[in-house]
Amino acid sequence: MNVTINGTPHELPAGASVAQAVRRLTDAGSGVAVAVNDEVVPRGAWDSTALAESDRVEVLTAVQGG
């Protein structure tokens, strides 16, 4: 299935979860937020939230510094 992650097309297996999409971009264990089709997905729901064809996923990571 094709989804867009941070503006870039990605091919994921059918029924892939938000957690799988996040792992495509980062190995960070904290400081990560995700929205699917402009709706924030709580971290506790990443494994159980399945993506669908043409979903738009935004993965945001916190950056420290000034």
From TrEMBL:
Domain of life, per lineage: Bacteria
CDD domains named in the record: Ubl_ThiS
PANTHER family: SULFUR CARRIER PROTEIN THIS
Protein's UniProt name: Thiamine biosynthesis protein ThiS
Organism this protein belongs to: Planomonospora sphaerica
Phylogenetic classification of the source organism: Bacteria, Bacillati, Actinomycetota, Actinomycetes, Streptosporangiales
